[in-house]
UniProtKB/TrEMBL annotation:
Keywords: FAD, Flavoprotein. GO terms for molecular function: flavin adenine dinucleotide binding; oxidoreductase activity. It comes from Thiorhodococcus minor. Residues 36-153 form the FAD/NAD(P)-binding domain. This is FAD-dependent oxidoreductase. The keyword Flavoprotein applies. Residues 356-425 form the Flavocytochrome c sulphide dehydrogenase flavin-binding domain. SUPFAM superfamilies: FAD/NAD(P)-binding domain, FAD/NAD-linked reductases, dimerisation (C-terminal) domain. The lineage of its organism: Bacteria, Pseudomonadati, Pseudomonadota, Gammaproteobacteria, Chromatiales. Gene3D superfamilies: FAD/NAD(P)-binding domain, Flavocytochrome c sulphide dehydrogenase, flavin-binding domain. Signal peptide: none annotated. The keyword Flavoprotein applies.
Length: 426
């Protein structure tokens, strides 16, 4: 079996193992007592947790509360910037979950009462729960870069949550003259989608190569290394020559401030001026998790990594980007895997059983061109209460892969997206 085939097999096997955790409780429909589980957040973690919990035990009343009427995927949203995908192609509704018997409520949760076991929405509705699952994504640390506020970010869009800012950034790139400079500032770890800024550079370079070939992209990085770095830099060089410049933190890539009027980025060594500027803010757990007192000094949510129960409020489970999950990165597939593990643990507890032994997986694809894909995959286990990588499982795309292999990985990236969204909403 080739390395590529082995990694694909591992990804499939680990996903099947996660789903298999739910098999036993699902067969005991009448053994589990009725319970109310409220899930807040309808993204990669929350939608999956709601679906798999309902599958595990239909007698559990599952309510999914999401403030938006639809879900828009951040994975693949960089293709909107290249012009290869529309925002509509990243948009999904919740009808599939409704057909499964899950109550979908469009509401923004503004209050969590962990003692009385209820949450309240901006609508005034109160949702009582026996177990609460939070998948609130990330929020931004607006105090980390002087001058960068939510209002300023509307003029210089980070587009780190797919939606109107994604379209605005695309429009700014379209309006930029050939020969202009596009600047991305990449945040420090940890943050949502570690390879995202570097794929963004590639996707914008793909657009520039076709329409604005004299233009340049600068990545100002708070870090001295990044995810899939060798693969990205080789791909950039192969397809775009010197169009993309990466400035490490040690070389002056740390951004300390932004001029709110011009968008000039003030670095530790020099200032940078671009025609289009996309500063991606440093991040922390979702605002709801912060306001509910579920974070520690790191800004993220400590959890029991076997069940994702909060170590601060055990009847609240936190999954996805907001939680501290060992070595798992903050990605859509990590959230998917965590949602399944969390659902299995809650179903078992409601049934009076011990939580099953968890299995976790992550796969992240990045597109350098429509026919050049790269990936990293990880399979994880629990050791001494911490999620750790399984040695020899997963891995990176080979550095010396040929064009055919890169094209296969690009096709895998699109297959992955179709499969994971079908898993969420089908």
């Amino acid at each position: 079996m080739t390395d590529l085939g082995r990694r694909a097999f591992l990804k499939t096997s680990a996903l099947a193992a996660s789903a298999a955790l739910l098999t036993s409780p699902a067969r005991r429909v009448h053994a589990a007592p009725k319970a109310r589980v409220v899930v807040v957040g309808g993204g990669f973690g929350g939608a999956i947790a709601a679906k798999y919990l309902q599958m595990a035990d239909p007698e559990i009343r599952v309510t999914l509360v999401e403030k938006e009427p639809v879900f828009r995927s951040c994975p693949m949203s960089n293709e909107v910037l290249s012009g290869d995908r529309s925002l509509d192609a990243l948009t999904f509704d919740f009808r599939g979950l409704t057909r499964r018997g899950i109550a979908i409520m469009q509401d923004e949760i503004t209050e969590i009462d962990a003692e009385q076991h209820f949450v309240r929405g901006s609508s005034g509705n109160r949702y009582n729960y026996d177990k609460l699952i939070l998948s609130p994504g990330v929020s931004f640390r607006w105090d980390a870069i002087e001058g960068l506020t939510e209002e300023v970010a509307e003029r210089f869009p980070h587009a780190w949550k797919a939606g109107p800012q994604t379209l605005k950034l695309r429009q700014q790139l379209e309006a930029m003259d050939d020969g202009g400079v596009f600047i991305i500032s990449a945040p420090p770890n940890p943050f949502r989608c570690p390879p995202g800024p570097y794929e963004r550079a590639a996707q914008v370079a793909h657009y520039f190569k076709q329409h604005k070939p004299k233009s340049k992209i600068i990545i100002l990085d708070a870090k001295d290394a990044f995810s899939k770095q060798g693969l990205f830099q080789a791909g950039w060089k192969q397809h775009y020559g010197d169009m993309i410049e990466w400035v490490s933190g040690a070389a002056g890539g740390i951004v300390e401030a932004i001029d709110p009027k011009t968008g000039a980025l003030i670095g530790t060594v020099e200032d940078f001026h671009g025609n289009v500027v996309s500063p991606i803010p440093p991040q922390r757990a979702g605002a709801l998790a912060v306001s509910a007192g579920l974070t520690d000094a790191s800004g993220w949510c400590p959890v029991d990594q076997k069940t994702f129960a909060s170590t601060l409020h055990p009847d609240i489970h936190v999954i996805g980007d907001s939680c501290i999950a060992g070595v798992m990165p903050k990605s859509g597939y990590s959230a998917n895997s965590q949602g399944k593990v969390c659902a299995a643990a809650i179903a078992a507890e409601i049934a009076g059983q011990a939580a099953p032994e968890p299995s976790y997986v992550n796969t992240c694809y990045s597109l350098i061109t429509p026919d050049h894909g790269i990936s990293v995959a990880g399979v994880y286990d629990l050791e001494d209460g911490q999620i750790v990588g399984i040695e020899g499982a997963g891995g990176l795309s080979p550095m010396d892969a040929d064009a055919r292999t890169r094209a296969i990985e690009a096709r895998f990236a699109h297959d992955w997206f179709r499969n994971i969204t079908a898993d969420m909403f089908g």
